[in-house]
Amino acid sequence: MTISAEEDAAVRRVFEPGSEWTGPDAAVETLSGGAAHKNYLVRLAGRKQVVKIWNGYWEAMNVLPPADVILGNTLCASRIGVGATVTAVCRESSGIALEYLCGTRPSLAGDADALEHLVPALHTLHTSGERFAQDLDPFVHVRTLLAAARERDYVLPIGLPVVEEHLAEIEEVLDLRPAEFVPCHNDLWDANVIVDGSGYRLIDWDLAANTDPAYELGFLAAYNGFDRDRTRQLASRYHGADDPHHLARVRLFMIVAHWSNSALWMIAQGNAGPNDDVDYEGELVRSWNGVLAELLAPDHRANLALARRPATRTTDLLHRRHTTLGARSPLFYDTPLEVVSGSGVWVTDVDGQVYLDGYNNVPHVGHANPVVAAAVSEQMSRLNLHTRYLNDRVVDYAEALLATFDAPLDRVFLTNSGSESNDLALRIARQHTGRTGVLVSGWSYHGNTGRLAELTTGLATGEGLAPWVRTLHIPDATGVDDASGLLEESLSAVDTAIASLVEAGHGVAAVVFDPLFSTEGLVSPPSGYVEGLTARVHAAGGLVLADEVQSGFGRTGGRMWGHRMFDVRPDLVVLGKPMGNGHPLSALVTTARLQDGFGARNDYFNTFAGSPVSAAAGMAVLQVMAEEDLLDRAAQLGHYVAGRLHEIVAGDPRVAAVRGRGLYFGLEFVDPGDPTVPDAAATRWVVEDMRRRGVLISRIGPAGNVLKMRPPLVVTRGEIDVLLGRLASSLAALSDA
């Protein structure tokens, strides 16, 4: 079939300029199919390629995702190996070129061996580990389509409200969990499957998304008219056994698939698109009848019972924990999460549900990192003894760690925790200065020893604030065009606090600060504040203690230590959490002068600190960080995250600020009616909702209204996109909560 010169030019633009496929010998003709895109066949010297150009018609009706998302999904399917090989992409014209698949189209409902060949292709797709650009919750999607249909006053099927009540019950029973979503085609019927020499190949990825694989099976069975036996064969072959639970879930998803198709044809009815030969009314009737047939099936109630997820042991374990560790031992989430394994940035719970860990900074180079695990295991099987014996592994690690610091920081005490290190740092500061006074932030946490509890302001402690402590409100210059006045006022408050300690006879021994001011809510002080604060402490005879438990080891991106964000020279630097990737390892880095002075007056020893096993863990972390260039990765991803977060929350009155540095980031929530009022309830809701969506995060700040996200540094761009994509979905759902 001939095409216009304009179409011919558009097809050729898909290929690289100068490609032989753009030359005069390449012939272009139209192909049939594709309501959302036009298909073309390009012939050249006996070779063929298919070009698809999306028209944006169904995208405008909110039926399909944007063309660039579909292009990305098609590329992803090509990488996985179940789709046609992509040969060229032109995002400007929403076009893509693919290999021409020479084969036949099977009858998925009729061919005896169709399932035998199709299921392996589905397994390849579903277990690939790849991610499409979007998640699909079919219930949310359908509600969006139905809302649009009602808004446009389209004719809706009789009995729709009653059916919606039934679907709400099905939604509750199926209990979709985004953490279980896998890449799915979501539009499998005869026309989208081609059999060639390599097996079953899937085409047309317009509706592809990450979703529950049982929805894929339910759609396949529903759209292709599978009878009960054929549906059972599909579920059995996919799962490798006859399982009433899995079959019941597929049967319920058949209803969801029919419902989804009904909504699609409702929104499309009466609209003559580029391919106006679509029988919208007939498709709607067929899909709606499928919904009713399944709802009225005699075994529907039995399927509802069989499809529920089996009960877990959480309740019993929680009771046992309360009777041993105590009911006051803190736990995350309304329903506590029992995690049993992890790998990289992913953790798995007792029910097999997988979560992206966007919270834990202890597994710095990933959960169960094989390099760290092997180093610890090898050393543990050889020797683990305290530091009153010589061991080269301990010294090697101390040298490697100190090499990351600037002079004069050239000595290290190895400890077991950040609490031990901060407590030791205060001992050194007090003995060196002969003073006791300490400056801390008005909302901070630096450890759980008795001395540190007395200066804790960010958690409840029975000790209360000690008389030798003065608190500082850390100024926040976020969104402030001219922060000079704020800087002057804040440094004046530092002067007042120092004077107060001197007048009370305590003097100034130290200031303790987290360079990220994370517990405070990731506030951004005005330029010059940290420099002015530390200079005043030094002038008063005190020491500067940088608590790098949160900000250290590259977390802020592009730099090993968070204090390097400022022009300051700390006297004491505390390290912790990520240092051993989960092995209890911490350190206090200081100067030779301070260490020697302390050693002259104290016999300091720590039985378990700095053992060869601990040193092996720490050295392995440094090794992985260097080999995988994690400092640079944190910088690049941090920049990307900041940009994406600003895009996601643009115009959202509930979000006052995007906060953080590098791969420690968050969002501040406020009352949209009064941005001066923190909205802790909304923040808490998002944390719980993200858990439901398969992502672990938390919240911080004096009001608990700042999301806290700090994934392991080995997180990839794709995994960041999963986190941000689900966060965007959660924020959208927050409006309806």
TrEMBL record:
<dbReference type="GO" id="GO:0030170">
    <property type="term" value="F:pyridoxal phosphate binding"/>
</dbReference>
<keyword id="KW-0032">Aminotransferase</keyword>
<protein>
    <submittedName>
        <fullName>Aminotransferase class III-fold pyridoxal phosphate-dependent enzyme</fullName>
    </submittedName>
</protein>
<dbReference type="InterPro" id="IPR015422">
    <property type="entry name" value="PyrdxlP-dep_Trfase_small"/>
</dbReference>
<dbReference type="InterPro" id="IPR011009">
    <property type="entry name" value="Kinase-like_dom_sf"/>
</dbReference>
<dbReference type="InterPro" id="IPR015421">
    <property type="entry name" value="PyrdxlP-dep_Trfase_major"/>
</dbReference>
<dbReference type="Pfam" id="PF01636">
    <property type="entry name" value="APH"/>
</dbReference>
<dbReference type="Pfam" id="PF00202">
    <property type="entry name" value="Aminotran_3"/>
</dbReference>
<dbReference type="InterPro" id="IPR015424">
    <property type="entry name" value="PyrdxlP-dep_Trfase"/>
</dbReference>
<feature type="domain" description="Aminoglycoside phosphotransferase">
    <location>
        <begin position="28"/>
        <end position="249"/>
    </location>
</feature>
<keyword id="KW-0663">Pyridoxal phosphate</keyword>
<dbReference type="InterPro" id="IPR002575">
    <property type="entry name" value="Aminoglycoside_PTrfase"/>
</dbReference>
<keyword id="KW-0808">Transferase</keyword>
<comment type="similarity">
    <text>Belongs to the class-III pyridoxal-phosphate-dependent aminotransferase family.</text>
</comment>
<dbReference type="InterPro" id="IPR005814">
    <property type="entry name" value="Aminotrans_3"/>
</dbReference>
<dbReference type="GO" id="GO:0008483">
    <property type="term" value="F:transaminase activity"/>
</dbReference>
<dbReference type="InterPro" id="IPR049704">
    <property type="entry name" value="Aminotrans_3_PPA_site"/>
</dbReference>
